[in-house]
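Hi U.,

Before I forget, here's the chain from the pilot set. I'm dumping it here mostly so it's searchable later in email.
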Amino acid sequence: GISGREGRQAVNAADFAVAQFRFLQRLLLVHGRLNYRRMCKFILYSFWKNAVLTLLLFYYTFISGFSGTSMFEGMVWTSFNVILFWPIIATGMFDRDVADEKALDNPALYENGRLGLDLNVARMVEMLLSALVHSLILFMVMMLAFDNMDTMHSNDYYSFGTSVFTWLVVTMNYRVVFVTSTVNWVFVAAIASSFATYVLFLAVYCRSGWLSPWMYNVDVQMVQEPLFWIGFL
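Structure:
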């Protein structure tokens, strides 16, 4: 509703209200457009990262004899979204592809939102295909780097799964950097916080022998494996 000479009837009946018509220009062309693009990036990235994780677990069923065994230890797997939410939240709050003045001077930029160009069936299919490709690459690197899951020559299942999970975290953060237009100090801090959260989690979890004796010292064993670092490349 717009508050005008006719009174406040429209304002009282509306969910949102502005004082003057001229405020609509910036509200739509700047804030509306930015919120739409940020929301689309947030949704597509969230679906993409979970699709990659799910596909990796699906591939693993074929090399685990359909035993139902998860590639990742339970608590490590649960930390996935907790570790990775920092960067995409920063993108969803601060990403800006063009300056406000340029958005106001070029109203045609608003067409992306009006026509739904950033989030539609085609973009969802593209996202799923990208997840398929990335998950296959991760799976192939995993199988080539750790032949017969022989980590540190001891067939260490937990070191193997944690190594793959670490590669997955790095890949996810690389992806969010790729889709982000604005790289400011907040975004850099969010990326650093994501990695710091993961390192801190492993450091604590792999030292608590009473909580998870099977994960004790896994992080140390993992980083001593040369193939683990080669996998980053």
